[in-house]
Amino acid sequence: MPERALDQLDLHEVIQGCRLEAGQPRAQETGYCFELFRRAVDEQEPAAWQAIDEQYRCLIQRWIHDCSPELPPQAVADIAPETWPRFWQALTRSSAPLTERFAHVGAILKYLKQCSLSVFWEYERRLRRREQVRQLLSTDEQVLSAQVVSEEEVLARIDRESLLQRVQEWIKAYVTDPQEQQVLSLSYQEGLSPAEIAARYPQEFADAQTVRRLKERVLKRARRALGNEPQPYLSRNGKNGAQRNGKIALARAGGVAVSQGQKESHNG
Question: For residue 265, what pLDDT band results from cuts at 50, 70 and 90?
Fold first, then answer.
């Protein structure tokens, strides 16, 4: 251990200590690397961030390479820097000191690795989206010759279909209450209003407010569950357009998923 407390050392001393510490077993760590992260995150020292980037750049690239060994070195080098903004944003959302969130530098590096893997999977998703666009543009060649479809519109179409699938899967898995299933089916398959549902099925639903309450209960659960999913592609309609896409997907998925669930229950 250093003779002085780590937080009293010059930053250069901390950087040098971290470089030496990085090659030692975990049991021999003396806290230099943790202190370097603390100064970068808690005290927001630019020089500390630069030192961390230099210290762990190759490690991040290795993590990404391990995910996809066939990835070209230049692609790995281009992806890796995206890890730091994600890591920074996640850690600076909280005002709690780093010492209260991580027990040792190994825990910090574990979280850094999660950020790097998340960046890699986002890169993979971007590649798949481009490939989907290419395929759609290829298969719709005759249509495209008659009307110009922009890449933005194609991406929006992909996102609507993806959102619809996620909503269908969620409804099928989590909407198991018979009354909720019936409300979704009557609302989205038959297009009935809450008042019409209550009038047609007075034994199941006391009034229109009961129907609205059941329907809103499902919608709130869906928003909470699907709110953690990536946001749909924002086209010219912006955020409101994405929200409308979500409502349309929920409407379309409601009838389909409930109908499938009802068929399965009958077959069972």
Answer: very low
Q: Are 164 and 253 in contact (CB under 8 A)?
A: yes
Domain ranges for the chain: 6-124, 150-267
CA dihedral defined by 168, 174, 180, 185, rounded to 10 degrees? Answer: 20
- Distance CA(32)–CA(238), nearest Å, equals 46
All residues at 6 or more sequence positions from 196 whose CB lies less than 8 Å from its CB, including other chains: none
State the sign of the Cα–Cα–Cα–Cα dihedral 126, 131, 133, 136.
negative
CA distance 231 to 229: 6
Please tell me the pTM assigned to this model.
0.50
- Note the helical H segments in 140-228: 141-146, 151-174, 178-188, 194-200, 208-226
Residue 229 pLDDT level (bands cut at 50, 70, 90):
very low
Question: Which DSSP state fits 136?
Answer: H
Quick one: DSSP state of residue 233? P
Side-chain half-sphere exposure of 35, counting CA atoms within 13 A: 23
